[in-house]
Design a protein that fits this description.
This is N-acetyltransferase domain-containing protein. It comes from Terrimicrobium sacchariphilum. One of its GO terms (molecular function) is acyltransferase activity, transferring groups other than amino-acyl groups. By secondary structure, the chain is α+β, with helices and mostly antiparallel strands. The chain has a domain of 122 residues: Aminopeptidase (3-Layer(aba) Sandwich), CATH 3.40.630.30. The protein is 28% helix and 21% strand. The strands form 2 sheets. It has a 4-stranded antiparallel beta sheet, with helices on both faces. Helix 1 runs antiparallel to helix 2. It is globular, with a radius of gyration of 16 Å. 36% of the residues are buried.
């Protein structure tokens, strides 16, 4: 059976120092503990707008919510970066800073639908990779489904190389009534 997932790998030493460039007046910064609800809202909106996740949307969001809560708990600075426009958080990327993790891009770059196609996802990916490099990682991994926007347009940036990936997180086959 063919895998429906890809695991991307980046050599962090090759990520340009300006990979996180975002046009002004947007700001990329570390999230604060108080922004967890706003981050979850961006993630839910982002995944609901990508048809590549439609068949597993509910269980995926349940899993991601737990991982986001973990990234925000008991830490001075959550393992999350946000993209801010004025007072509004319009994008985010939750990270796993553990070098041995299978997936360092927990959510991948998430951008609200009305702000997409303006290189903001690329800037968030670049910022995520730079943050992982700053945390001491030499390689970073991101897992996504084959037909998603991330797999087709985003994750190949910054020399991301993909390989098929097997995960236990698959959709339960739906039976005809």
């Amino acid at each position: 059976m063919a895998s429906h997932w890809l695991r991307f790998e980046w050599d962090l030493s090759g990520v340009p120092q300006n990979a996180d460039e975002i046009p002004s007046p947007l700001v990329v910064r570390d999230a604060t503990k108080e922004e967890e609800a706003a981050v979850l809202k961006v993630i839910a909106s982002s995944f609901s707008m990508d048809t590549g996740w439609a068949d597993i949307h509910k269980p995926l969001l349940a899993k991601l919510t737990g991982q986001v809560e973990k990234a925000f708990e008991d830490k001075e600075t959550p393992s999350c970066i946000v993209l801010q426009y004025g007072n509004r958080i319009i994008g985010c990327s939750v990270l796993n800073l553990d070098e041995t993790a299978e997936n360092h891009l927990v959510t991948g770059p998430c951008v609200l639908h009305e702000y997409r196609s303006r290189s903001m996802g690329s800037g968030l990916l670049g910022a995520s990779l730079l943050r992982l490099r700053k945390a001491g990682l030499r390689k970073a991994y991101g897992i996504t489904r084959i037909k998603t926007i991330a797999a087709r347009f985003l994750y190949p940036k910054f020399a991301g190389k993909s390989a098929e990936w097997v995960t236990e997180f698959e959709a339960t086959p739906k039976l005809a009534a």
